[in-house]
Amino acid sequence: MVAAAITGFGSAFPDHLIDQQEAWEKFFANHYGGVPVAEKVWNATGVTTRYGVIDPTHEDISLWSTEERMQRFIQEALPLGASAIQDSLTQAGVAAGDVDLLTAVSCTGYASPGIDILLARDLGMPSSTERVHVGHMGCYAAIPALGLVQDAAVARGKVGILLCLELASLHVQPPTDEIGQVVAHALFADAAAAITVEPGATGLEVVDVIARTDANEADKMAWDVTDHGFRMGLAPQVPDVLGRHVHDVVSDLLSRHQLRTQDVRAWAVHPGGPKIVDVVGEQLALTDDQLSLSRQVLSECGNCSSATVLLILQRIFDQDDLDEGDFVVAMAFGPGLTLYAALLRQTRSSR
Fold it and tell me: Rounded to an integer, what distance in angstroms lies between the CA atom of residue 171 and that of residue 46?
């Protein structure tokens, strides 16, 4: 069986770099004026800056229709997606004409023809390039999509691109007194992140993927399509529910390969919020240093939904301090309630 690995990363962000405090003072303080604890919640998210195609201090779209938001999605998504993919291809040393499979992930925008078709066209990928769209799975979607791309590379020798592109700023909701909406608007942000996966290459090999869904807690997190865009449902119990499962899930993943948490060199933990990072750290006995990149991405970029875990992996990859055989665990969480984790390993080229 031919091994395959991630050989390149790319990312792109909108032009608007939004200061968290400024966004509160100039827009959201008035937007949530009727919620007594809103400012306290806003300041407790661990976010300092984030990117958005919409800067609410200059453009209020909270009453836009879903149609208007989806039209804006395509307009904004294509240049961001193209930039992230091209950077990934460049780092991998792969030409767009050699891409066999393009997998596009998003839960924040849809169109048909979709961004998979339009980006393949704009980047000059062959008409024979296979395309997959993974939609509305939420923050954990990058990991099952990564497993899909890796499987295609291993089983069929396909050179694959995975693009996660999320524009949460398009889904600012009308004013409400629901605290979950304050949390969502304080956390979520925009980004495009891409990886290139090649058969028989040096990089991060996807060794295994594991999933756990607690359907009994499905009402704790939702992403509903409404007449005014997509609306986050977020219960305060989410960190506690994840805390009940994360140790067993990671232990199951590692034990399949005779590993323990101490054998993992680096961790890419999706920072759904600071409490979620805290819970994962407590349950797995991880150090502050092991969680530093997750907190760094949350602080600098916000929660970019499915793109976030790839942004953390990119920082791990770009540090270039992984040795042959080092293991990395990536994990993310989302509606369901669902936890996904992947075991990756630094490999030597077999080309």
Answer: 21
